[in-house]
Amino acid sequence: MVDSPQFRNMLEAIEGFNLKALDPSGAIRPVLMDSRSGLLTSGPLFDTGLIELNTGNGAYTADDAFGGKGRLNVPPVGTITQVLFYDLDDEGIPLDVVLFESDFTATADDAAFAVSDDDAKKCIGVVSISSFLNCGTFQIGQSFPTLSYSVLSGVIFYQCIIRGAPTVAAGSEPYLRFWVQ
């Protein structure tokens, strides 16, 4: 990145304006400018809202599938910019979210995570969540993966893998939330 007083002044002057630029496909899209980093990002931001993981209640073993198969309806081309894990059971155990470009045969909840070789080839990335904010009676894990994807169907499938041994109490089921640009 160019770092000069003139460049920083230009960034500060245009930050917050309704800017448009060409994306890689040649389409004109809105962009956001951050004067601290000089980062241009395309918008708008898409928020999936809270997604329950549908875990069972009880004890898990490290490296188990944590919940069943999930499905995200997303723009066909984008970048996953942030993922939150709402740990309402207050354990703060690391979690991986494995993302697939098309449907796959999921591992049963609370069983050792394993997918077939054919399904493994559909993987488009893994989001690891390992740092947590302790909020007293629950914890929030967060990741900023900047994971770009292209899925013409507009659907990303996923399944989580828990990396420790939590016990999920009834009424404390976990949630995920994704932001995509």
List the helices and strands and how they pair.
Elements: H1 5-14, E1 19-22, E2 28-33, E3 40-42, E4 46-47, E5 51-52, E6 58-59, E7 70-73, E8 77-87, E9 95-100, H2 117-120, E10 123-129, E11 132-134, E12 139-143, E13 147-150, E14 155-162, E15 167-168, E16 175-180
Antiparallel strand pairs: 1-2, 2-3, 4-16, 5-16, 6-15, 7-14, 8-12, 8-13, 8-16, 9-10, 9-14, 11-12
Q: How big is the Rg?
A: 19 Å
Shape: globular
Mean pLDDT: 84
Q: Encode the helix/strand succession as letters.
A: HEEEEEEEEEHEEEEEEE
Helical percentage: under 10%
Major β-sheet annotation: 7 strands, antiparallel
Ranges where pLDDT stays below 50 over 5 or more residues in a row are 13-17, 33-39
Q: Would you report the number of β strands?
A: 16
Measured by DSSP, the beta-strand proportion falls in 35-45%
Broad structural category: mainly beta
Helix count equals 2
**Distance, first to last CA:** 22 Å
